[in-house]
Amino acid sequence: MSLDISTLYFVATMVAAMLGAMLLFFGRQEHIPALNWWGTAYLLGAASVALWTLAAGSLGEVLSLALNAVGFVACGMVWNASRVFHGREPNWPGLVLGAVAWIAAVMTLPPEASAMRMTIGAGIVAVYAALTAGELWSDRRRAQQKRWPAIVVPVLHGFVLMLPILLGDLFHAHDASFAGSIWVTVFSIELVLYAVGTVFVIFMLVSERAVTAHKTAASMDPLTGMFNRRGFAEACARVIDREANAGRPVTVMIFDIDHFKSINDRFGHPAGDEILKLFAAVVVNGLRITDLSGRIGGEEFAALLPCSLEEGVVVAERVREGFEGSGIVDETGPVDTTVSIGVAGGPAGTELEVLLAAADTALYQAKRGGRNRVEAAEELPLSLENWRRKTAGIARQPQQPAVARLA
């Protein structure tokens, strides 16, 4: 079955134009700048290919050169779109470098070197495809298995783009029938598949980013930027399991800002919010990078430290002193910034709920003892039932095949 090349190019151009308009629409609706870059690139590329294909014979040399340059700018925009999507600044010199290189090559090469000009043009597009794949590869925030479609699509496009032209240069440089060969047909079909496949990858990336943003919003406190109760519990569960597997103890502390209601009554809720943000900063600065912290209530905060109870008490005292020394003063005088802290530690595998309950008991002891102090739980938590059940299940697993063989 023979396929008309002009028809295939027309279909590819129309598909690219429609996809570009769709990307622009969603980019404006969702306020995603990268989609605007991708959509504009598709529209520019489609317009360039359409004008060059339909009116190639009637266009002057300068106009034809300009249309090709616009196509290379569109390739540069695709690369810059991937940069913008990952939070990087657009590379403006790189955006036009391909077009400048193409114009320089056409102006330098003799008119009869059409094959060389085609090879240079395909090489420029392949370089942009490789840059796009490299930009996606450098995004280390996602797992390898989730990145591979976004990397493979531009790489395959660059390979398929180069292959027919390189084969033509190497083996059929003077064969007029090469223009109608199977490689040109494959290239035409690939343009359609690439346009659709790339948009699929784009929406896959955008969807993943949206899901990640919603998960983050569900686990973070918007005022302080710390974990909320749910996010803190989920993160602590992972750390407790990790430390339990290594046989290391963990320590939990609960912070309660002293007389916070009077701060709100005296200065207003906006000032109270500023106090909460200040304390969150003191906690983060006072903890180590391996420690977890979160806001679990109105003026209550908590932290999990992979260390012994004694080390946890030292860290809690550092946080207490840091907050007390904040030195906030208003027109009526200094503002009391003190905090009461309860600390509880347990052996490997102690559940978070047990540690929090013990730390909460110690916190009330700190409040009854005059506030602005650190109290450690007098007794270690006793409940290790969940961890014992889990480890017992793991211990039984290797025995199952033996029982099956005996049966």
Secondary-structure topology with pairs:
Layout: H1 5-30, H2 33-54, H3 61-85, H4 92-108, H5 114-137, H6 144-171, H7 182-219, H8 229-245, E1 250-257, H9 260-267, H10 269-286, E2 292-295, E3 300-305, H11 309-324, E4 329-330, E5 333-334, E6 339-346, H12 352-368, E7 374-376, H13 385-396, H14 399-406
Parallel strand pairs: 6-7
Antiparallel strand pairs: 1-3, 1-6, 2-3, 4-5
Helix pairs in contact: 1-2, 1-7, 2-3, 3-4, 3-5, 4-5, 5-6, 6-7, 9-10, 10-11
Task: Flag low-confidence runs.
Answer: 140-145, 170-174, 399-407
Write out the strand line-up for the largest beta sheet, numbering strands in chain order.
2-3-1-6-7
Biggest sheet details: 5 strands, mixed
Shape call: elongated
The CATH topology of the largest domain is Rhopdopsin 7-helix transmembrane proteins
* Quaternary structure: single chain
Count the E strands: 7
CATH class category label of the largest domain = Mainly Alpha
Tell me, rounded to a whole number, the average pLDDT: 79
> Using only CA atoms, what is the Rg?
32 Å
The helix-and-strand class reads alpha+beta
- Note the gap between the termini: 61 Å
How many structural domains are formed by the residues? 2
- The proportion of residues in beta strands is 5-15%
State the share of residues found in helices, binned by percent: 55-70%
The helix/strand series, from N terminus to C terminus, equals HHHHHHHHEHHEEHEEEHEHH
**Second-tier CATH architecture of the largest domain:** Up-down Bundle
Number of helical elements: 14
